[in-house]
Amino acid sequence: MISSVAAAQTDSEEGSNWRLHPEFSLGAGYGLTKLKDNEFKEDEAAKKIFALVKFNEYIGVEAAYIDFDKAGNDVLTLDADGKSLAVILEAPINQYFSLYAKGGQLWWDADASIAAINASDNYDGSEAFWGGGAKFRLSDNLDLRVEYERFDFNISRDEFDVLQQDDIGMDVDFASVSLQFTF
Fold it and tell me: Signal sequence span per UniProt (predicted)?
């Protein structure tokens, strides 16, 4: 009886093979953003690179750079990018699949241009964001991530010239697929 319990424990430890120690990962992804605002309603491609430090199998910190690409309306075009820092909480379902949630801060920068008067300016901000996703283990060091993130961009009308009637408050939904390499 004792030997069968010990054998089962050894099998489960070897079989799980889920990395139970601190790890460092780098990754890159590609996805689509959907901008939701009264005046901006566009879907654009976006690119992302990230570094992740996991302290154990459940908790990690991710730093990322995201290029949101250009979005515009009849008057204004914005070209935005940002850097983020997030805490990731991961729930391993089995040795090949896990779900995760994240929350953190985005520091964004946007170049704005108004074609009608050939004017441009730069805006920046810092907003909280959240997200979640699923991670699929492809090999010992390579994972596929499918992820959704929600960002907010808020620009006060006072920062704009007279052509912009209202504050700009955009919700940016970002759905992406990434490859993550763990060292």
Answer: none
Alpha helix ranges (H) inside the chain: 2-16
pTM score = 0.78
Q: What residue type is assigned to position 24 of the chain?
A: F
Please report the domains of the chain, with CATH numbers, ordered by start residue: 21-71+81-108+125-154+172-182 (2.40.160.20)
3-state helix, strand, coil in the chain (%, to 5): 10, 70, 20
User: Taking the mean position of all CA atoms in its chain, how far away is CA 112?
Assistant: 23
Task: Assign 165 a pLDDT band (cuts: 50, 70, 90).
Answer: low
Return phi, psi of residue 29, to 5°. -145, 170
27 touches 49 (CB < 8 A): yes
Predicted confidence band of residue 44 (pLDDT cuts 50, 70, 90):
confident
Rounded to 10 degrees, the C-alpha dihedral 11/144/41/118 comes to 140
Give pLDDT, residue 159. 56
Tally of helices (H runs) and strands (E runs) in the chain: 1, 8
Write the CA distances from 60 to 17, 19, 54, integer angstroms. 19, 13, 4
